[in-house]
Every structure is written in C-alpha cells, then in structure tokens.
Amino acid sequence: MKPDGSFAKSEDGVLLDGTCPVDREYFVKLEEIGFYMVLYTYVDQNGNIATMSYSPIVKDYLGPTIEVDDIDEGEVVTAKLGTDVTIAKYTVSDNVSEVEMIKSYVYVLSPTGFMQKVANGGKFFAEHRGDYEVHYYAYDEVGNYTIYSYTVRVS
User: Fold this and answer.
1) What's the predicted TM-score (pTM) here?
2) Cβ-count burial of 153 within 10 angstroms (0-12 exposed, 13-18 middle, 19+ buried)?
C-alpha cells in the first residue's frame, strides 16, 4: 500500500492488491514521501496462514527553494551610508511541504556584528560603512532547510 492508503501498481501496470499472480516478481517505484506497507500472506494445503510484512520509508531530504527577486546568491550590491536599504523580496516553495507550512525568515548582519530580523521586502538603515550580509532562511515541515545570502556593500 502507498502512503495514502491506496494500492500500488507495479512498473508494468499490475495493481498490487492481493489478487495478482504470485508466480512472478514485481518492481515498484516508491515516489511518494511516507510509509509503504508490503504484506505477504501464505496459505498452505492445510489452510494454515502465515503473514509477513515490512514497511519501506521514503523520506524527504530536500530543503525548500528560496527565490529572491533580481539578486543572485552571493551577489554584492552597493548602497550609500546613511540610507534605508530595501532588501529583495522572496518566495519559497518545497517538493513536499505546502507553502503555508514553510517557515521563513530574513536577517541582516551588520559590519559591527549586530543582527536584525527584516520583513519580506523590508528595510534596514545603513548606519556603518562595510558589508551587510542579508540571509534568507527557509525550513520545511520535517526540518530540512535552505539558506540564501547576498551582500550589501555600504560606502
């Protein structure tokens, strides 16, 4: 059975619902995240029944995707001292988690080591000369994460 409770199909299209022939092997691609159930039932000529089961698990190891508008990861952009700097807006997505279930944050690390949280498309004040690091963090439901960063060079 698949993680959603439905019966799996073999790669050649046979529904594996217990009515399929047992004199051959079946290959199944486990493409959905979650627990699968494989159950074997044996009945001998006297009607004795034995069962065996196992549950392969397909896990999500991929972190979310962070898409930042108009700035490449690792890029260095410039700003003037004493101005408000608007951070680039971003969106997040994931191969499994719905967007509403992805936790995301943006922090700016100043040249003096002060870190502040900034809203999506928000601003920070360029109070000091030097490099401000803008870091975007996104975490999916199972804890996989992604970090996307760029630098604002203030002079």
Assistant:
1) 0.75
2) middle
